[in-house]
DNA sequence: AGGATGATTGCCT
DNA sequence: GGCAATCATCCTC
């Protein structure tokens, strides 16, 4: 298993995405193992980077191993990990294990399974916002911890997009009860 | 300068 | 299942 070497993120986003399943994400000590991620790259019409750099997606063309954070529908934040230039992995769900009390406070007392079962929910639970955009993932407040065992990974079409709908770049931990949606 | 849109969520029927 | 919320971004005029 390829895990968190210095060049971990200097690879195609789908490869990184697969290897991120089971890795624990912490923001100021709050988080848990990622169970659902999606890959996006510049050849992909669903990607923010498809039409080249803009002020919003600048982080996607910056150094790998940094965060790309954007706001969607004027309401929710979404967290990505930058990979090769113009590519990134969207963090869609994790198993809430660390800092449960803080997550529940931030999420209005939602049941555990719904604390981080979606990209917007996850950012609310971990208190991720625009201030995290462009920050390196190997320094505070971020921390990434390798898994101690391998996981059964399944793939499928990505969620909520209207272009590139058949590209199977959604990666999930098979059978996890913390996914945003079941695998199609 | 103006309008359409979105890598979502939660509430309503 | 349907749909409103809510606004920065991006494209077109």
Can you give a write-up of this model?
The protein is α+β, with helices and mostly antiparallel strands and 184 residues long. The protein has one domain (6-173): Methylpurine-DNA glycosylase (MPG) (3-methyladenine DNA Glycosylase, Chain A, Roll). It has three helices and eight strands, in the order H-E-E-E-E-E-H-H-E-E-E. Strands 1, 2, 3, 4, 5, 6, 7 and 8 form an eight-stranded antiparallel β-sheet that branches. The longest helix is centred in the N-terminal third of the chain and has 8 residues, at 13-20. It is globular. The two termini are 26 Å apart. The mean pLDDT is 96. It binds a DNA duplex (13 and 13 nucleotides) through strand 3, strand 4 and helix 3.
Mean pLDDT: 96
Total domains: 1
Secondary-structure element series: HEEEEEHHEEE
- The number of helical runs is 3
**3D shape:** globular
CATH topology tier name: 3-methyladenine DNA Glycosylase, Chain A
Radius of gyration: 15 Å
Name given to the CATH homologous superfamily: Methylpurine-DNA glycosylase (MPG)
CATH architecture: Roll
Low-confidence parts, pLDDT < 50 over ≥5 residues?
Answer: none
Helix content bin: 10-25%
CATH class: Alpha Beta
- Report the end-to-end length measured between terminal Cα atoms: 26 Å
Structural class assignment: alpha+beta
Per DSSP, what share of the residues sits in E-state strands of 2 or more residues?
25-35%
Largest sheet: 8 strands, antiparallel
How many β-strands, per DSSP? 8
């Amino acid at each position: 298993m390829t895990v968190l070497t210095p060049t971990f993120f200097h690879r195609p986003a789908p490869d990184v995405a697969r290897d991120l399943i089971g890795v624990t994400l912490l923001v100021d000590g709050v988080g848990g193992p990622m169970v659902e991620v999606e890959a996006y790259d510049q050849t992909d019409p669903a990607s923010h980077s498809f039409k080249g750099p803009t002020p919003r997606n600048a982080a996607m063309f910056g150094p790998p191993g940094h965060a790309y954070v954007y706001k969607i529908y004027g309401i929710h934040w979404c967290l990505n990990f930058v990979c090769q230039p113009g590519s990134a992995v969207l963090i869609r769900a994790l198993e809430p294990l660390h800092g449960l009390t803080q997550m529940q406070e931030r999420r209005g007392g939602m049941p555990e399974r719904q604390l981080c079962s979606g990209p917007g929910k996850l950012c609310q639970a971990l208190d991720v916002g625009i201030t995290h955009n462009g920050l390196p993932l190997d320094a505070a407040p971020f921390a990434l911890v390798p898994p101690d065992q391998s996981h059964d990974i399944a793939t499928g079409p990505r969620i909520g997009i209207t272009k590139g709908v058949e590209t199977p770049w959604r990666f999930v931990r098979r059978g996890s009860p913390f996914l945003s949606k079941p695998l199609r």
